[in-house]
Amino acid sequence: MKKVIQFGETVEGYDIPVLNEREIRAAAGILFLVIFFSLMLIMFNNNFLLAKYSITIFLTDFIIRVFVNPKFSPSLIIGRLIVRNQVPEYVGAKQKKFAWIIGVALSGTMFIFMVVVNSYSPITGIICLMCLIFLFFESAFGICLACKVYRMVYGEKAQYCPGEVCDVKAKQDIQKTSKAQVFIVFGFIAYIFLISYLVGDNLRKTPYDLFGIFSAKSK
Predict the structure, then answer these.
(1) Do both 195 and 128 map to the same domain?
(2) pTM recorded for the entire structure
(3) Residue ranges for the chain with pLDDT beneath 70
């Protein structure tokens, strides 16, 4: 029973239970796509079916992670299969548990409002947006936003963070951003606004079927 009900795994060289950040990021990407497509269906087709399924799946998956064992989480298992050939990147399990408890709270609230009560409101919209932001930052940047408040809640520094961000250290040259690079970013933003001003009307036009292929099929 002890091996079934546990959080994190014991790895030689680490004095606390750890998890593989690579499979966590893969799982976050999978969940992000599911929730994103659900939101698109709501926005463009007013179809809540996929959203209700994804909320139920999301809640069940996080309950397994927190209260049973992350090894038995379906999304993490799929993530493990996807990144099985990559070298593991170990992170402290404790801060991840804290973040996933927040995930249980958010998805549980969504489940009550949208699945049980069968309703939607600004509350569900805000929570959905928060979940998307959390999952996007985790999958795209390896940044656990919920983990950022771990120290404030527990009064201790998290150990073994992704990219060793918990450890204070000097940046290497390849990590530094010069003034010229910052200028390029702002210049690129200005360029986008300029394009919008100069040819914005043409960009907003619906493209026509150049060879008439799709127009012929629709007749």
Answers:
(1) no
(2) 0.79
(3) 1-2, 163-170, 214-219
